[in-house]
Specification:
Length: 107
């Protein structure tokens, strides 16, 4: 068995340290600051630049509002509920409707 070390005893003699290699210069250079940090590592993929992502042509606020209100109103009216039932379904279904809408529009 190894001898127990005293508390606070350092292990500097037991560890061989290697020097950290210098950072590789970036191969990707943007002419202007696009607001997105970019990397040059193979394991970390660069995100799409803001100009490359989907824009307002695929996203409709009117459609989102219609779905957020229309689906709970339709369900509440189809089961014979009133205003309080509609509010309950709005609260219950808002997150699933948002998740479904965003996943469809971002695909």
């Amino acid at each position: 068995m190894a001898q127990p070390r005293a508390q606070g005893e350092e292990l500097d003699g037991d560890i061989t340290f290697i020097s950290t290699p210098a950072a590789v210069p970036s191969k990707f250079t943007a002419k202007v600051d696009c607001g997105v940090d970019t990397t040059n590592f193979r394991a970390i993929h660069n995100p799409p630049l803001p100009a490359e992502g989907p824009g307002n042509e695929s996203f409709s606020n009117y459609l989102l509002g219609g779905l957020l209100l229309g689906i709970p109103i339709f369900i509440a009216r189809s089961i014979g509920g009133g205003f309080k039932t509609t509010i309950f379904f709005v609260i219950l279904l808002s997150v699933p409707i948002l998740a479904a809408f965003w996943s469809v529009t971002s695909a």
